[in-house]
Write a structure and sequence with these properties.
Helices cover about 70% and strands about 0% of the residues. It is an all-alpha fold and about 140 residues long.
Length: about 140
């Protein structure tokens, strides 16, 4: 049951990305380009996600188990450290250069976009590089 619910949630998330146009890197870049033909639609998608997340986390904080019965554990740390800042900067630079972040890139790759395949490949190399560096 857990795997089925994970699949359904992923499918709904992917469909939402497709319907909102967030798998199109030019739409994302249009939002980030404040001095060109600015496209504010991503702000509405983000606003909707923040609104849903706000209520979901408010509910989650009151619970000790998730809806399928397993233990619910939310992160306890709220510390902003160097690793968080550097990771956020790298994410932002990659998003700004490519117009993809991991979720939309995976959906775009599955739909056959060659740019997304290149992005996901670079993302995997970066993740493996991080794992290698962490072990050293």
């Amino acid at each position: 049951m857990q795997r089925l619910s994970e699949f359904i949630v992923g499918l709904v998330f992917g469909m939402g990305l497709l319907l909102s146009g967030m798998t199109d890197p030019y739409k994302v870049l249009g939002f980030l380009d404040l001095f060109g033909p600015w496209d504010p639609s991503l702000a509405f998608v983000m606003g909707g996600a923040i609104l849903v997340g706000f209520f979901a986390f408010a509910l989650a904080k009151k619970r000790t188990s998730h809806f399928l019965g397993g233990a619910l554990s939310l992160p306890k740390s709220n510390m902003i450290d160097k690793r968080l800042v550097v990771g956020s900067l790298l994410f932002g630079v990659g998003w700004g250069l490519a117009g993809f972040c991991p979720g939309p890139a995976l959906v775009s790759m599955a739909s056959g976009q060659s740019q997304a395949l290149l992005f996901v490949g670079a993302m995997v190399v970066g993740m493996l590089g991080f794992e290698f560096a962490e072990r050293k």
